[in-house]
Amino acid sequence: LRVVSYLEYASADPDVTYRSVLYNLVCNVDDLPSRPSYTFKLSISSTADASTITTSSSSISLTRNMPPTPGAFDVSPNFGYEVVTNFLLIASLWDDSDLPLTYEFMYISYVSNLVTIQNQAVSNKAQSFLPAGRDVEGYNLTCRLNVYDSYNARSRASTHVQVQPEEDDLL
Predict the structure, then answer these.
(1) Burial of 148 by CB count in 10 Å (0-12 exposed, 13-18 middle, 19+ buried)?
(2) Which of 86, 111, 142, 152 gets the highest tally of CB atoms within 10 A of its CB?
(3) Is 112 left (phi over 0), alpha (psi -120 to 50) or beta?
């Protein structure tokens, strides 16, 4: 907990001053178990004298925005040649109540950088010529898909496609 603000105000009685301290509960979402909802309860106890204890509490329930449920991610064809083959990347059967879903298509280059084919967009398809994969990895290239709901909660999928150098480069 951390103090966000401190307020002080007077009542109609000049001898009484009310003080209010506002706290924020700050937590990393990754530290919470993955559940669709959470309830936080704050209890305060005070003693006016040795025989009287006053307790008050308040609670709040929050609903967590869950990422889209997984669907399929396919690249067609699953084999081709760099610069020659036009690959079609398709996301299908992804679901979420927070529509619209948006799709981002990428591949991992041979130097391990993510290269974007299509920025986050409503279209669940993208076409691209892809570079050849590395020969030591069987010319396999990793394609990645991010699917976002309207609040930007993200799910991720990846698949491999075999992209060989142009046939002339193999000779």
Answers:
(1) buried
(2) 142
(3) left
